[in-house]
Amino acid sequence: MVFGLFKKGGGEEITRYADVVVISLQKTAYYADARDGLIKTVAAAIDESPTGKVVIEMSKVKQFTSGPLGALVVSARRASEKDGALVLAAAVSGFVGKVLSTATDNNASPSYATVRAALSALSTEAASEYDKQAG
Fold first, then answer.
1. How far apart, in whole angstroms, are the C-alpha atoms of residue 118 and residue 120?
2. Non-local CB neighbours of 108 within 8 Å, separated by 6+ positions
């Protein structure tokens, strides 16, 4: 299945660029009650990505508690098991990226300033498709 741009019930927009899925978090705050939904959404994206590579775009997020953070850790491990990767883009705080890196023993930077930078680090094809769609 190829993702187009669409809304999910949990407040995320999901887009696929070549072999990488981008999940744009749309809420400003993610609390404990968002954990299970986030795990399901990211797991589906990992499964839909042919490479298991997923970018979580967080530019709108101002608060992110331990429950959703745990969801990202679980999801990063799942992506790693598929030989993929879960990275962050446009996170307001570097703290989430540091926790993700520490919890998953990932030496690579799990956080990028923009979606374009994250895509470029994960896949040249995905970055090229992003550029074409951006116009």
1. 5
2. 85
User: Which residue type does 32 have?
Assistant: A
Predicted TM-score of the model (pTM): 0.84
Residue with tokens 């970055």: 127
Work out whether strand 63-64 and strand 6-7 pair parallel, antiparallel, or are unpaired: unpaired
Q: How far, CA to CA in Å, does 57 sit from each of 16, 27?
A: 13, 11
DSSP string, 53-66: EEEEE-TT--EE-H
Q: Quick one: 46 exposed, middle or buried, by C-beta within 10 A (0-12, 13-18, 19+)? A: buried
Longest CA span, the chain: 38
Q: Using CA atoms of 29, 35, 36, 41 in order, give the dihedral in degrees to the nearest 10.
A: 60
**Amino acid of residue 91:** A
pLDDT in tens, 91-131: 766 666 666 666 666 555 588 989 999 999 999 999 999 99
Is the Cα dihedral 24, 95, 37, 127 positive or negative?
positive
